Amino acid sequence: MKVTNEKTENSQTYLMIEMDEAEVEESTEKAYRKLVQRVNVPGFRKGKAPREVLERHVGKETLLNDMLDELVPQAYEKALEEQEIEAIARPQIEIVQTDPVIFKAVVPLRPVVTLGDYHSIRLEQELVEVTEEMVDAVIEQLRHQHATWEPVERPLALGDLATLDVESTAEGEPFINQKGAQYQLMAESITPAPGFAEQLVGMNKNEEKEFEIQLPDDYTREEFAGKKASFKVTIIEIKQEYLPEVTDDFAAQVESETKTVEALRERIEADLRTRTEARSKQDFEERVIEAVTDISEVKYPPVMVEVEIHELLDDQARRLQMQGLTMEQYLRAMNKTDEEMHEEMRPIAEKRVTRGLVLGKVAEEEKIEVSDDDIDAEIAVMVESAAEDRRQEFKEILDTPQTRDSLRQTLLTRNTVQRLAEIAKGLKEIDTSLKEEEK
C-alpha cells in the first residue's frame, strides 16, 4: 500500500491511497468467500461455486463492490496509523480507479483553538430599572385577563367580541365556514385574513354583510395564498369588555395571598426585577462570549458544521412534532426546500460550533471541571421541580449515563461562562489578588 499525503487545509488532510495487487487479491478472496455463502448458484451447493462461476452469476461489479467494502476501511485505518493522523469523524471516500485500486480520503482533523487575551476583557452589565410604568403595564394586562364581557346594543367597534356566522370561498373553493364563532376585533389582525376585523367595524346585531379580501402571497395556508376570498358574515351578538377597577378585592382576585393593591404592586415589581435581572445577566454573558470569540482564532473541519446543522434540524422536527406537524408540512407552508432549510441553518451552526470550541478551550485553560457530586446536585434540583408522585420516576430517567453526560456538558458550559463573566467584571483578578495577599 502506498499512501500520499497530498495536502492539509481547512482542518482536513487529503490522502491518496494506492493498494498493492496482493492486498487487492486477498480482499477479493475474502469477499468471494463471504458472498458464495449467501448466493444460490444453479448446479452448485451453497458455498461450493468456484469464484469465476460466482462472478459470472452475480456480475463482476457485485464482487468488486464487496471487495472494496472489505478493503477500503481497513486500508484507511492502516493509512491513518502510518501517517500518525488523528481523525475526529468519518472521512469522505472517493474511489479514483479500480485497476489498480486507488482511493482518495478527506480526513477531518481535530479543531485548533487559539484563545486571545480574554483576561483583559472588561465589560459592564447593564441593569434595567423597574419603573412604575412597567408595573402599571402588568396591572393593565391583569385587568384584561380578569375582565367581563357584557352584551351591548350598538355597532361593532375594535376591541369588541362578536358572535358571528361566516361563509366564505376563495376563487370557488370552500374557505372558512363557521356558525356561532366568537371573534374579537383587533386592529391589524391577520386572522382569519388581513383586513377582516376592519370590515366588521360598524356592523349591528343581526346585520349581514358581504365583502372580498385579497389574500397575501405569503398566506399561512399555502393553497389559498394570493387568491381572492369572498365572505358573507352575519352578526349574532356583540359584547363589550368591562375592565375591573384596581382595588384590594381585585388584588385578592389576582392572587389570594395579596390582600391589597400595594402588596400586588410589590409582588409584580419583585417579579419584574427578577426577570429583568435574569435578562440582563443573559445579555451580559452573551456579550462576553461574543468578545472572547472575536479575539480567538478557531479552525475546524466542515463536517462539524454539517453535524450541527443536522442536530438543529432534528430539534426543529421534534418541536414541530409536538405541534402535530411534520417537517414536510412545515416546508410546504413556508414554501422552502430541504436544501434551502439546510443552508438557512448554516450560519447558526457555524456560530454554535465556534462558540462551543472556544468555551471548551477556556474550560481547559481555566481547569474547570464538573464532578459527579455536581451532577447529583443538579439532578436533585430538577427532581424537586417535578410533582411529588413522579419524582422517583423522574430521577430514574435523569440518572442514566447518557443524561449524566449531557448534564456534565451543560454544567461545564454554564460554569465556564460564569468564569468568563467574573473575569469581564474584574472579579476573578480581585479574587486572585486577595488569595496572593493571604499567602
Compile the SSE list and pairings.
Elements: E1 2-9, E2 12-18, H1 21-36, H2 51-58, H3 60-83, E3 92-98, E4 101-108, E5 112-114, H4 132-145, E6 148-151, E7 161-170, E8 173-174, E9 178-184, H5 196-200, E10 208-214, E11 228-242, H6 248-254, H7 261-294, E12 297-299, H8 302-322, H9 327-334, H10 338-344, H11 346-365, H12 372-384, H13 391-398, H14 401-425, H15 427-438
What does this structure look like?
It is built from 15 helices and 12 strands. With 439 residues, it is an alpha+beta fold. The strands form 3 sheets. Strands 6, 7, 8, 9, 10 and 11 form a 6-stranded antiparallel sheet that branches. The protein has a 4-stranded antiparallel sheet with strand order 1-2-4-3, with helices on one face. The chain has a two-stranded antiparallel ribbon with strand order 5-12. A hairpin with a 2-residue loop joins strand 1 and strand 2 (12-18).
Basic shape: extended
Count up the domains: 4
Number of helices: 15
Class based on secondary structure composition and strand pairing = alpha+beta
Query: In what range is the share of β-strand residues?
Result: 15-25%
Unreliable stretches, pLDDT < 50, 5 or more residues? none
Largest sheet: 6 strands, antiparallel
* Termini gap: 61 Å
Q: Strand tally, please? A: 12
CATH level 1 name of the largest domain: Alpha Beta
Architecture per CATH nomenclature, i.e. the level-2 architecture of the largest domain? 2-Layer Sandwich
What letter string, H or E per element, gives the SSE order? EEHHHEEEHEEEEHEEHHEHHHHHHHH
Q: Which homologous superfamily in CATH is the superfamily of the largest domain?
A: Trigger factor ribosome-binding domain
**Rg calculated over all Cα atoms:** 34 Å
Mean pLDDT, all residues: 91
Approximate helicity band? 40-55%
